[in-house]
Amino acid sequence: MDDFRAKLAAVATATEQTLSQLLPSNSDNPIAAPMRHAVLNGGKRLRAFLAVESAALYDVNRGQALRTGAAIECMHAYSLVHDDLPCMDDDDLRRGEPTVHIKWDEATAVLAGDALQSLAFEILADIETSPSSDVQVSLIHTLAQASGANGMVLGQMLDIAAETAPEPLTLDEITHLQANKTGALIQWSAHSGAILAQDAGEELLEYSKAVGLAFQIQDDVLDVLGDAKTAGKRLQKDAEAGKATFVSLLGLEQAQKKANSLVENACDALGRFGDKATTLRQVAHFVVNREL
Is the pLDDT of residue 61 over 60? Predict the structure, then answer.
């Protein structure tokens, strides 16, 4: 696992270097600093890692893969900036740093998020990401689907609605919610390599669906067992609000078993890639063994 963590750290560094070059840096541009604060504030860069490693299965140019990784990190950062707003989850900390609306103000946070979303599509539309216009359109189209009204935004809307629902959500309802809120961008990340290679990548879709759900289950586990100082954010908010989670519905032990079962499914889905998919299998195991 040490070798895997070294690979993860190396891709995180390369992704941040790519992001630093792509983000606005003009000191005369008032939105530049909030954008950079939102996206260049550490983190595992797991989505970027999935993008890079899925592309490696097809021997796609690493520079192109890093650009798709940068695009998904911009989209992810936008979602976090908006999610942290008082009208949403109302969080003051993100990865141990003040959230954008705390460091600046709410209007700046909204605009920084908007700009990061736009930048994600701008990166994917560039010839440096792919010389094929068909690939560019496919990347943009699928990311729009994953992040919009039938993807991440839907999941966030369902999560907000759950706060005032007369009864806690069922297990099926939570699974549907999280498949969109968290899973959709993870799925896009792991499938982006196939898109770059112009391959259907059905195995990667199956893999990423399982990994995305396992990721959220582990998030719920860490919300119970984790340390807020280590996590860099407030924990157990859902429990305080009386919202159902995988842990509250399944119990801690069964939730962990479910996550481990999903990891097995994810690894099995990559059978045709053989040893070339070793790192992606390690990602699946990392998701349920991480501490943050």
Answer: yes
